[in-house]
Amino acid sequence: MNFNEGSEEPKKEYPNKSLFLAVCAACIGGTFQYGYNISVINAPTQYVQDFINQTWRARYQTGISGDVLTLLWSTIVSMFTLGGFLGVTIGGTLSVKLGRKGTLLANNIFALMAALLMGLSYPAGVFELLIIGRLFTGINAGIALCVQPLYLAEIAPTSIRGAMGMGTSVFITGGILTGQVIGLKELLGREEYWPILLSTTCIPAFLQLLILPWFPESPRYLLIDKGDEEGCKKALKQLHGMAACDDEREDIEKEKNNLTGLQAKKPWELFTDRSLRWQLLTIVVLNIAQQLNGINAIYFYADYVFRQSGIPVDKIPYVTVGTGACECITALTCGMLIECLGRKVLITGGYTLMCICCILFTLTLTFQDVSPIFPYLSMACVFAFILSFGLGPGGVTNILTTELFTQNTRPAAYMIAGSVNWLSFFFIGMIFPFIVLGLKQYCFLVFLVVCCSVGTYIFLVVPETKNKTFLEIQNEFLSSNKRKACSSDGAGTTLLSTSI
């Protein structure tokens, strides 16, 4: 398979320079934008609300009511989620028609339009441009989250596919951290700079447009989807070097032969394919859990915990930057560990640690006023929870979505996974305040149940995918389906041969 002759070592290799730069080029205008636009909107909250109030007064000669202001601000923020959902519903289709690289390049149109609209909103005195701009940033993020992991997985050698797939998580957390830092008052966090701050989303877009064209399209897309053997060979040589390209091409050829005559599937076709039911259920469960596991609650409570710990209000933004740095470091750590420990160990371990943190955080918040030490224990729980999330669920979920499907089903799988993720994001945004108000610190018991349930599901159902080709992973699921079918009705003995 992927072993050198007679050697026991599974090819310890690192991305060559061209491969590493291709990952950076894809990510800087991809999931980096997603992370950046999540965090950059927080710093100018008060300034944008003041701008809406001034614009309203100039238009209607009266001040805006508190309820309407809150509604408009909520609309600006939530447009990102709506845009993300729209983006992910078209991302998979675009990745088949334009290619992975072509879609990533075309996606920058939305980021540039968003930067232009949000930058012009203040001088034009039109706050509605912020709503449209945030919608475009969401579409950009939705397409990126759908297509970029596809590109990374398809250009990566099998032996380091997990580590390279972590580029998605590393750049998301890097984007969040960059947005937090740029939003500090020492940089663009002052009132006069907020339109510039929101329009800086154009910088990663320009960088990707300058760098990504120098790198090839996904070799798997070229050979399997387009039948371009020469283009595939050239892409593999550039990305993997002469020595490694033959092995990877052989793997792609095998997958192509197994998929002969099969077209790329639509999302609804995956739901009717019995051979994919466990893979589909797995990505749905993982993507719902990624939003409902309590990470949003931790960030919500972080401000309260930091204030209880005695940190001055004006210093809290700097501590918040520390949480972003914490998550970024764990994403990098996960990238280094994933090929050693495997996907299953990391994600199961991450959810187990999050369960422990939920219990401890509930206890420390409950006894917050008993002793001066409890606020500091709560702060430790905040960082521990973020570390646990970044070490497993935050990084491995996207990789598993890639690895559980083959070329003809993968784009549709990402559309389903992305749609579930964005809908869960919207859902938690809507009900989360009510959960917190109703249950207070005991809301973490709800998240404890989620983390515990998902960790158990992964342990029992999901196979280890480390160092396995996409076909080997698919066959492992098919074998499992066949055993279950045989035990239930004696049928299913031809699943393996007919479904690929």
UniProtKB/TrEMBL annotation:
This is Solute carrier family 2, facilitated glucose transporter member 11-like. GO terms for molecular function: D-glucose transmembrane transporter activity. The chain crosses the membrane at residues 19-36, 71-92, 104-125, 131-151, 163-182, 194-215, 280-301, 316-338, 345-367, 373-400, 412-436, 442-462. It holds the Pfam family Sugar_tr. It is a multi-pass membrane protein. GO terms for cellular component: plasma membrane. The lineage of its organism: Eukaryota, Metazoa, Chordata, Craniata, Vertebrata. The keyword Transport applies. NCBIfam families: SP. Signal peptide: none annotated. Belongs to the major facilitator superfamily. Sugar transporter (TC 2.A.1.1) family. Residues 23-466 form the Major facilitator superfamily (MFS) profile domain. Gene3D superfamilies: MFS general substrate transporter like domains. One of its GO terms (biological process) is D-glucose import. It comes from the Eukaryota. It is found in: Membrane. Keywords: Membrane, Transmembrane, Transmembrane helix, Transport.
